[in-house]
Amino acid sequence: QSALTQPRSVSGSPGQSVTISCTGTSSDVGAYNYVSWYQQDPGKAPQLIIYDVNNRPSGVPDRFSGSKSGNTASLTISGLQADDEADYYCCSYADNYAYVFGTGTKVTVL
Amino acid sequence: QLQLQESGPGLVKPSETLSLTCTVSGGFINRSSYFWAWIRQSPGKGLEWIGSIYYRGSTYYNTSLKSRVVISVDTSKNQFSLKVNSMTVADTAVYYCARQGGGSGWPPQPDYWGQGSLVTVSS
Questions:
Q1: Is the peptide bond before B107 cis (omega within 30 degrees of 0)?
Q2: d(Cα B18, Cα B8) in Å, to the nearest integer?
Q3: Cβ contacts of A8 on chain B, cutoff 8 Å
Q4: Which of A38, A54, A107, B28 yields a CA-CA distance of 20 to 30 A from B110?
């Protein structure tokens, strides 16, 4: 169960869109539509913002959207806001009842 | 509102066994729709899924940690626990307990998390 690969950092200006990629293999991201995304503020626990590739829990703004193509999942933040500045992690089911997380991406709002 | 709270020592000596407990409130651990997981985050690093347990006692572990980890559940106390033996400096991390209850997959995806418990391995 190797960690999924994410860019170390992405940045954008307020109002712009940023996209974070999450690359796995045909045994995890590519095999299942069970990809979730988490937002983590410094010193806090991660919070679920996307599940099942492209579904948002209640209360999560529709500026956050997810997608998947082959072995790569993506999270897009539209209309970037200052409080979107955080670390973001993807997570995928990886067979045998196990999950694997991504390496994490720091989003900076310029 | 579901809440999870980790408890346990903040400092463990090398080669010793870490024991952490997660107390669940605002919901019942013996619900058939959920798994209960431990996830850790080393300082400045990413998240690592350690393993999970179903209320009936079935356990599932990260293959890289399987030989050192035991997860158990006590439904009468609405708690589940983690033991990691032969701790080393590399096991220093914030340990989170979490519910796996999100999405349509089985097992579900992690959705609710505890606040985390920092465990430092040092002599």
A1: yes
A2: 8
A3: none
A4: A107
DSSP state string for A7-71:
-SEEEE-TT--EEEEEE--TTTTTT-S-EEEEEE-TTS--EEEEBTTTB--TT--TTEEEEEETT
Nearest residue on chain B to A106, alpha-carbon basis: B46
Residues in A touching B115 (Cβ below 8 Å): 44-45
In this complex, do A57 and B113 lie within 8 Å of one another by their Cβ atoms?
A: no
pLDDT tens-digit profile of B16-71?
999 999 999 999 999 999 999 999 999 888 999 999 999 999 999 999 999 999 99
* CA–CA separation, A7 and A49 (whole Å): 18
Determine, for residues B46 and A104 on separate chains, whether the beta-carbon distance falls below 8 Å: yes
Q: Do the beta carbons of residue A57 and residue A82 sit within 8 Å?
A: no
Give the whole-angstrom CA distance, residue B115 versus residue B98: 9
pLDDT at A1 over 80: no
**Min distance A110 CA to chain B CA atoms (Å):** 22
pLDDT averaged over every residue in chain B? 96
Q: Which amino acid is at B87?
A: M
Cβ-contact A85, A107 below 8 angstroms: yes
Neighbouring-strand partners of residue B3: B25
